[in-house]
């Protein structure tokens, strides 16, 4: 078997997130695959073209080169034109998937991913590629066999094809016996009793396959070991067959021709021709004809093997597809169960929590009697933690609805000043000291179209984050401006709203990742800033539902400014 068929599949993982990269690499190594890992687009592209992996797992958001650029560059290279590329990305919107597939991706798996789904899709794509390679090779072999001996390649009956070949060459060269022997064991010196398997012999068409001792056929052993045609023009004088001369002479054998059957450098058998003709030496034309017939024999054997192999691979592919369908169905059921569970728990928690927050506000505002200073502090803590918990429950519920596609937007004219007043009220207990929120809006700002609840939640999340990641008493600035003619689809107007703080800032390498689901700048139980990592993911989703964009400018230890734009008018 050729070396490229013996080696384990090589998978290249291009992923800048070390956790996701390690998970993917572990999945593949546990399955017995070889794995290469790269953490940026430029190095990933170089590794793909240098190592020519069997499959590539590719993230979209990468340093230096995006996954889209890497995918397109690989596809433009002849060596990478047929390599399966699986995009594994948190960008799961329909347009992101379409963009990935247009850039040349074979498949698309959204994050967070299931190891079972990833492995099933990898196996399907690897098997599909192997089947396609086998089909291409088989096509070339069939073409060669058709060109050499058209009639012998019209049947999948291996024995009949080989019998036709040896019969034709025996008649053409006046052979007493022409046979095809397949490799068995020990011919390369590993055993004292090398063996071969007699597949067909033209003088005994009905005989079955038998095992032969190759020590009695030195010409076959030499053909196996050298890979060259062995010619014994005169049995009486050639030293190669001297030990068996007494056996051959009574049979009238005058000359012998042994032609190796090799496929891509691998010896799979030999064609043996023995003659009793008076013309002793084989001509160059006869040797060439024997090579052609032997090549047809090689193709016939390989075709039969490939046909069996292809049947097995097709069966494996069908099973893999069935497994993938079952896995997808299970994932859908699990996702539906998860969404139902989150909704049920959220509703069950929100009702008592709303009461706790409401009564805490009454106590904090001295509506039921004056409290001591300590009691006031305790009530503020209860109120602050209660609102944090309510925000977390709302974020989980919104995330569940986003994943299931249940969230819709209801556009109407909104007043930004009124929304900001609501945000002020919602965030007044985020910090231990009263927050300082500065607002600067254009004098000529008119109402615009938006979903009021979702726009309120976007600003609430951004302001809450700004307060949490800043020193107590540090101001947060909300500004807005109108961008004339900046809408991409129809050159309409946009409104840009910005929330600025003077807090810890965000490192440059994390500014795209902060909008991913469950991403947190700090991890571990000792982290200073609490949260589930859903607020900015929800902000991004809601902004995009409005047809807008969100981004951040930041200087570490100086502060951050979150900007988002939405159209003035929808439709």
Keywords:
571 residues; alpha/beta; Rossmann fold; Beta-Lactamase; Heat Shock Protein 90; 5-stranded parallel beta sheet; 18 strands; disordered N terminus
Structure description:
The chain contains 14 helices and 18 strands. It has 571 residues and is an alpha/beta fold. The protein folds into three domains: 147 residues, Response regulator (Rossmann fold); 108 residues, Beta-Lactamase; 160 residues, Heat Shock Protein 90 (2-Layer Sandwich), CATH 3.30.565. The strands form four sheets. It has a six-stranded antiparallel beta sheet with strand order 8-7-6-11-10-9, sandwiched between helices. The longest helix is centred in the middle third of the chain and has 81 residues. It starts with a helix and ends with a strand. The N terminus is likely disordered.
Count of helical segments?
14
The rough form would be described as: rod-shaped
Poorly predicted parts: 1-6, 140-145, 523-527
Structural domain count:
3
CATH architecture of the largest domain: 2-Layer Sandwich
CATH overall fold name of the largest domain: Heat Shock Protein 90
CATH class of the largest domain: Alpha Beta
CATH homologous superfamily descriptor of the largest domain: Histidine kinase-like ATPase, C-terminal domain
* Cα distance spanning the termini: 63 Å
Rg is 37 Å
> What can be said about the biggest beta sheet?
6 strands, antiparallel
Q: How many β strands by DSSP?
A: 18
User: Reading side by side through the largest sheet, how are the strands ordered?
Assistant: 8-7-6-11-10-9
Helix content: 40-55%
Structural class: alpha/beta
The fraction of residues in strands falls at 15-25%
Mean pLDDT: 81
Oligomer: single chain
């Amino acid at each position: 078997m050729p070396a490229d068929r013996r080696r384990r599949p090589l998978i290249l993982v291009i992923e800048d997130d070390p956790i996701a990269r390690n998970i993917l690499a572990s999945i593949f190594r546990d399955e017995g695959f070889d794995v290469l890992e790269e953490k940026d687009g430029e190095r990933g592209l170089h590794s793909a073209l240098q190592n020519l992996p069997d499959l590539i797992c590719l993230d979209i958001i990468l340093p230096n080169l995006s996954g889209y650029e890497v995918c397109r560059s690989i596809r433009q290279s002849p060596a990478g034109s047929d390599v399966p590329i699986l995009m594994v990305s948190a960008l799961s919107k329909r347009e992101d998937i379409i963009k990935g597939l247009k850039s040349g991706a074979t498949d698309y798996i959204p994050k967070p991913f299931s190891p079972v789904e990833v492995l099933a899709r990898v196996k399907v794509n690897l098997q599909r590629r192997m089947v396609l390679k086998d089909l291409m090779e088989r096509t070339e072999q069939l073409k060669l066999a058709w060109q050499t001996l058209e009639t012998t390649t019209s049947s999948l009956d291996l024995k009949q094809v080989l019998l036709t070949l040896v019969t034709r060459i025996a008649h053409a060269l006046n052979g007493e016996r022409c046979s095809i022997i397949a490799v068995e064991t020990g011919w390369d010196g590993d055993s004292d009793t090398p063996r071969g398997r007699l597949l067909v012999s033209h003088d005994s068409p009905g005989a079955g396959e038998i095992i032969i001792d190759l020590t009695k056929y030195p010409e076959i052993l030499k053909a196996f070991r050298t890979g060259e045609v062995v010619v014994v023009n005169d049995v009486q004088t050639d030293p190669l067959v001297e030990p068996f001369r007494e056996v051959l002479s009574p049979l009238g054998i005058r000359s012998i021709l042994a032609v190796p059957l090799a496929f891509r450098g691998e010896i799979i058998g030999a064609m043996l021709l023995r003659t009793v003709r008076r013309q002793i030496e084989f001509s160059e034309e006869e040797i060439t004809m024997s090579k052609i017939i032997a090549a047809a024999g090689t193709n016939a054997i390989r075709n039969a093997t490939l046909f069996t192999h292809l049947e097995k691979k097709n069966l494996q592919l069908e099973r893999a597809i069935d497994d993938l369908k079952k896995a997808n169905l299970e994932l859908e059921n699990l996702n539906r169960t998860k969404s139902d569970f989150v909704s049920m728990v959220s509703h069950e928690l929100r009702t008592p929590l709303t009461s706790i927050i409401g009564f805490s506000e009454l106590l904090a505002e001295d509506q039921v009697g004056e409290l001591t200073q300590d009691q006031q502090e305790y009530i503020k803590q209860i109120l602050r933690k209660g609102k944090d918990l309510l925000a977390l429950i709302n974020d989980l519920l919104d995330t569940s609805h986003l994943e299931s596609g249940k969230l819709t937007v209801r556009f109407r004219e909104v007043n930004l000043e009124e929304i900001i007043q609501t945000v002020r009220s919602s965030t007044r207990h985020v910090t231990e000291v009263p927050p300082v929120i500065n607002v600067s809006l254009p004098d000529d700002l008119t109402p615009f179209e938006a979903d009021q609840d979702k726009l309120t939640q976007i600003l609430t999340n951004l302001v809450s984050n700004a307060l949490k990641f800043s020193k107590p008493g540090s101001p947060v600035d909300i500004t807005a401006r109108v961008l004339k003619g900046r809408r991409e689809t129809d050159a309409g107007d946009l409104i840009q709203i910005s929330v600025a703080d003077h807090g810890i800032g965000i490192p440059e390498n994390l500014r795209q990742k902060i909008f991913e689901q469950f991403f947190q700048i700090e991890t571990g139980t000792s982290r200073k800033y609490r949260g589930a990592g859903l607020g900015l993911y929800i902000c991004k989703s809601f902004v995009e539902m409005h047809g807008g964009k969100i981004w951040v400018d930041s200087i570490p230890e100086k502060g951050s400014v979150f900007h988002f734009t939405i159209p003035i008018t929808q439709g």
